[in-house]
Specification:
The structure is a homodimer of 388-residue chains. By secondary structure, chain A is of the alpha/beta class. The first copy, chain A, has helices at residues 22-28, 41-45, 48-58, 75-88, 99-113, 120-123, 186-204, 212-234, 239-252, 266-278, 282-297, 302-311, 322-339, 356-363, 377-386; strands at 4-6, 11-14, 33-38, 62-66, 92-97, 134-138, 150-155, 160-165, 173-176.
C-alpha cells in the first residue's frame, strides 16, 4: 500500500422520506438563505420540487432558484448562479438533482468567493481558498458527487469538459432517499449504473501491488451492483434494491475504495471528451469506452484483470488460458452493459472516427492519462478506434 | 435497510514514517500546546517516544505528558489528565497508543469542559456539549477508537466498565503507521485481531433484512483479516500484511459497516464485564464470548449464520444440514482463534462460574443487550455458562 490520507466529512442522511425534512436539516446547519439549484421538468413532475419547497417554507428558509441544469453542465449557468448568489448573499447552495446539478452547485460555491474567473479553477492549477457550503438532495445515483471532492463542468464555447478537486468541495450533507429514484427513466438508471461501476473499476485497476482488503471491498460493490441494478430496472419501486444501488453509488465515489493505491481515471477522461463532443450521457459513454480500455491495457497487469474475471464475473477458469479468462471477463462486462440497455460501440450510437484526433488531443491536454497504463494521444486514439 | 445517518470526519494519515511528521500535522491544525497521553515502557523501548518528542520539539509544540495508561483504562488516570489539561490550558489531547490510551484521551477531552464529574457521561444519559480536540498516533490496531465516536472507561472502585458515544469524540486526525506494529507482542496482536473481527461481526449479525452490499463489505473485512493476521504473527515485519490489518481495523470500527441496520454489541457488553472482573484483555475475552454467543443465538436467524459459514469460512454445504453448516462455521471461528494463540473457554483461563450472576447483572445494568437477540440477565448467564 502506498501512503495516503483519507478524509470525507460529508454527512449522509439516508432513507425513506428524509428529503421531506430538508428545512429542518438546513436548520441544524444554521442556514437561512439558500440558492436551490436543479434541473427542471422531472423534479416538478414527480412532486419532489413541491415537497422541498414546502419543507423550506415551513422552516422559514428563504430560497432563490436556479433551474435548467442539463447533463454535462454548462459554465454559462454557473456564471448565472454566481451572480444570484452574490446579489442575494446566500449562505448555502442546495443542489437538488444528480451529478450535473451538484457539480454546478459546487462551481457556484467556489465562484462566490473566487476573485478571478471561476473557470480558471478547472483549467489551471489554481485552487479555491474558500467556498460556500453546499448541501445536496440526491435524485440520481450515479456521479457520486454528493460526497466527493470533485466538480466537472463543460465550457460550451471551447468544448472543454474539465474538473476541479478540493477538500472544500465535500458537501456538508447529502440526503439520499431511494424513493426519489422511482421515476427515473430507464436510460438514466442504466447510464447511472455504468457510471457507478466505472467509479469502482477506476479504483480497482491500479498499477500498485498489495491492496487485498481494498480489492475485496471493490468486488463487494461490483457484485452487489450487478445484482441489484437489473432489479430496479425490472421494478422501479423496489425500495430495497434502490437502497443498495444508491448506497453503492455513494461509497463508489467517496474516496474509500481508492485508498493506498494510485487509481486510474483514464477511461473517465477519455469519455469526458466523447460526451463534450457528442452530448452522449457520461455513463453511456463509459459503457463504450471501458471495454475498449480493458482490451487495450490488460496486458499491463494480467493478474489484476484475471482476478476481476474470476471474482466479479465468476468466470470458470478450467481448461482456459489466462488470456481466455481475461477476455471472457471483458466480454461479460460488455454483456452486462447490453443487458441493462446500453450500447458498447461508438458505431452503435452513430459516432465515427472524424473527431478522434481532436478529442484525443483535448483528453491529454493536461498531460498523459491514467496509471494502470500511462496513455498518450496515440493510445487514446487507439482506444477510440477499439470502441468503434 | 433502515434509515441512517453516516458521518465520520476523522482524517486518517496512513503509511510509512507518517508518525514522524506529528509536529507538522499538529501545525496544520494550528495546535501549539498538547497533552500527550500514552502507556509506558514499550513506547520508550521501541524508540517511538523519542521520535514523537523530537518531532514535537522541532515544530515548536509545547507538550505535557500523562503516561501509565493500562488496558481497561482507569477513571483515576482520566481525572489526573483533566487536572493537567486544565492547569496547563492545553489545546489538544494527543493519544499515542492503542484503544485504552485513545479512550483515556477522549475522556480527558470531555472532562476538560464538562462541569460535573466526567464519569456521569459514562453512566447516565448526559452528553458532553463541547470537548477538546483529540489527535491520535495509533500503535495497536484493535479497538478502532482512532476514528470512532466512542470511549470505554473502567471505574476501578465500582468495577464498572462503561462507554460514552458522541460525534464530538471523533478524533481530528489519526496517524496510522504500520511499522509501529512491528514490536507488538504476540498476545497483543492476537487479542487485537479478535477485537477487530468482533467489530465486524457485531455489525454483521443483525436482526434486519436487506443489507447485501454491507454484508459483502463485512465479508471482505473478515476474509482479508483472517488471511493477513497469521502473516504478521509469522513475520512481524511484514509491512504489507500490517497495512491490511491496520486498515481493516480502522474500517471495522469507523461506523461504515453498520449503516442501514441495527448492529448488535451483545458480545462486547458481555465481555466488558469479564475484563472488568478479571482484567483479561478485551480481545482475548471476545474470543471466548463470541463463539458462546453464536451457539446461543444462531437460531434467531439461521440464514445469516449460514451465509457467514459459507462466505467467510467457505464451508462446503454438500451433504450437510443447515444446522451442520452453521455449527461448522462456529467451530471454524474457534479454530481460528486457537490458531492465533487465543483461548476460547473460560475454564482455559482459570475463570469459573462464581461471578456469573454479578457480571450478568452489571452487563444489563442499562437494559437488555443486543439486537440479533435481545439478551436479559438469564441469557447473559447462559452465555457465560456456554463459554465455560
Amino acid at each position: 500500500m502506498i501512503n495516503f490520507r483519507s478524509y470525507n466529512p460529508t454527512k449522509i442522511i439516508f432513507g425513506k422520506d428524509t428529503y421531506k425534512e430538508i428545512g429542518g436539516i438546513l436548520g441544524e446547519y444554521g442556514k437561512k438563505k439558500v440558492l436551490m439549484v436543479y434541473g427542471g421538468r422531472s423534479l416538478k413532475a414527480n412532486g419532489v420540487y413541491d415537497q422541498v419547497v414546502h419543507s423550506l417554507e415551513a422552516s422559514g428558509i428563504l430560497f432563490f432558484e436556479l433551474g435548467g441544469v442539463k447533463p454535462n453542465p454548462r459554465l454559462s449557468l454557473v456564471y448565472e448562479g454566481i451572480e444570484i448568489a452574490k446579489r442575494e448573499q446566500i449562505d448555502m447552495v442546495l443542489a437538488v438533482g444528480g451529478g450535473s446539478v451538484i457539480d454546478t452547485a459546487k462551481a457556484i460555491a467556489a465562484g462566490y468567493y473566487y476573485e478571478g474567473d471561476v473557470w480558471e479553477l478547472y483549467i489551471t492549477e489554481a485552487q479555491p481558498e474558500k467556498v460556500l457550503d453546499v448541501g445536496v438532495i440526491l435524485t440520481i445515483p450515479a456521479a457520486g458527487s454528493e460526497s466527493s471532492d470533485g466538480s466537472v463542468i463543460t465550457n460550451e464555447e471551447t468544448r472543454m469538459k474539465c474538473s476541479c478537486c478540493t477538500d472544500l468541495f465535500f458537501p456538508k450533507f447529502a440526503v439520499l432517499d431511494p424513493q426519489l429514484c422511482y421515476t427515473l427513466p430507464d436510460s438514466q438508471i442504466s447510464a447511472g449504473g455504468a457510471d457507478i461501476l466505472a467509479h469502482v473499476m477506476e479504483r480497482y485497476f491500479v498499477p500498485d501491488d498489495h491492496h487485498d482488503f481494498s480489492d475485496r471491498m471493490c468486488e463487494a460493490a461490483m457484485v452487489s451492483l450487478i445484482e441489484n441494478l437489473p432489479k430496479v430496472l425490472k421494478n422501479k419501486q423496489d425500495y430495497e434494491a434502490w437502497c443498495e444501488v444508491m448506497w453503492i453509488g455513494n461509497i463508489a465515489h467517496n474516496g474509500l475504495l481508492g485508498r493506498g493505491k494510485r487509481d486510474d481515471w483514464g477511461s473517465h477522461n477519455i469519455e469526458h471528451q466523447l460526451s463534450a463532443y457528442y452530448d452522449i450521457a457520461h455513463g453511456a459513454g463509459l459503457a463504450i469506452i471501458f471495454p475498449a480500455w480493458m482490451k487495450y491495457v490488460w496486458k499491463e497487469k494480467p493478474e489484476m484483470m484475471e482476478q476481476y474475471a474470476l471474482r466479479v464475473w465468476k468466470v470458470c477458469p478450467e481448461g482456459k488460458t489466462r488470456e481466455e479468462v481475461i477476455l471472457e471477463g471483458i466480454s461479460r462486462t460488455e454483456e452486462f452493459y447490453h443487458s441493462i440497455g446500453l450500447k458498447t460501440r461508438l458505431s452503435e450510437v452513430g459516432i465515427d472516427d472524424r473527431d478522434f484526433e481532436k478529442m484525443a488531443e483535448k483528453a491529454v491536454f493536461m498531460g498523459p492519462l491514467g496509471n494502470f497504463k500511462k496513455l498518450y494521444k496515440e493510445d487514446v486514439m487507439e482506444i477510440y478506434r477499439l470502441a468503434l
